[in-house]
Every structure is written in structure tokens, then in C-alpha cells.
Design brief:
Layout (H helix, E strand, L loop, with lengths): L1 H15 L33 E4 L14 E3 L5 E3 L9 H17 L2 E3 L9 E13 L4 E11 L7 E10 L8 H21 L1
Parallel strand pairs: 1-4, 1-5, 2-5
Antiparallel strand pairs: 2-3, 5-6, 6-7
InterPro entries: ABC_trans_aux
Protein name: ABC-type transport auxiliary lipoprotein family protein
Keywords: Lipoprotein, Signal
Length: about 190
Amino acid sequence: MKATAFAPALLALTLGGCLSFGEKPPASLLTLTAAQPVAVGQTQTATSGTVTIAVPSIPQEVATLRVPVRSSDTAVAYVKDTRWVEPPNRLFARLMSDAVTTRTGRVVIATRLMGEPGASLAGDLRSFGIDEPTSSAVVTFDAMLQRDGGKPVEKRRFEARVPVSPIDAMTVGPAINQAANQVATEVADWVGR
């Protein structure tokens, strides 16, 4: 009778070494850094207007903390032992915010204030990963901009490709960061014209 009472506890102890709750985290996480960051302590005044930047929508292959690698038009894998610190569309929205602020001097706000007469930038972050056939980091952003004064919505595709070799946990972060900064800079210049 005593042996059967200890059986569940013994079974739990022996299975404890076999079970894993979640995967092992990578040694480090990836993030984006602005090529031209906003200066600390800089006060901005909305004399040249405001810009509201929405967090871009993303397809399911990008809607993960993993870094996608397209090996063909229909096949996607992910870089081993690599993760973003937070979803890529949020990282990219902040990068665009810094680029628009530093390149245009306009005040960037996260959400439109009631009656705020500024411009609005939204869009789809269609690619944010690695293209294996060309060994390049690819960032593709379909931007939609409504300029000040309720003018018609403008739409434009931006894309940057940066070589990356080999495709591994150490090389993909810097390459995607460079491509993302290039796209953010081009978007900021478009917003500022």
C-alpha cells in the first residue's frame, strides 16, 4: 500500500528531467538602433506640424520574434538561436519615428490627438528578414501617408537590401538594422518633402 502511495511522486520526479516548458532563450536578443538618434534633452515644438506614425501591420511570417529566412517564393524558415527583443513592427515604428524627427524636425506623436491637424503615416511591413537566394537582408515597407490638411492619401513602396554572409545569429541583426535604417531614412525624406 505504501509503495503505491509513492508511485505518483516517483513518476513526477523521473519525468521532471524529460519535460521542458518553453524553449531555451538565445544568448542575446536583437533590436534596432537609429543611425541618427534623437538628441537627449532636445525640446521640440510643433511649429512645422506633427506626424502620427502608426505601428505597421505585418504578415504572419514577420509577426514573430524569430528572424524569417525565405529560401524560395513559397518556403520560409527561421534563423536558429536568434530572437527580436520585441515584435519587429514596433521596433520599426520607433526607428521611423526617430528618422522623421531628426530629418524633418517635425514632432512625432504615437496617437492622433483630438483635432490634431498633422500628417498621418501608416503601412504594411511586408518583409523584415533574410532572402537566402540573394544572401541579403530585406526590409520592404508599403507606406500610406496623408499629409497635413486632409489631402488625398499617398502610397509608396520602400525597400532596402543589404548583403549578409553567412546567414547566422551574428550577422543577420546588423544587416537588417542597416536595411531598416535605409528604409526609415527614405520614408522620412518622403514625409518631409
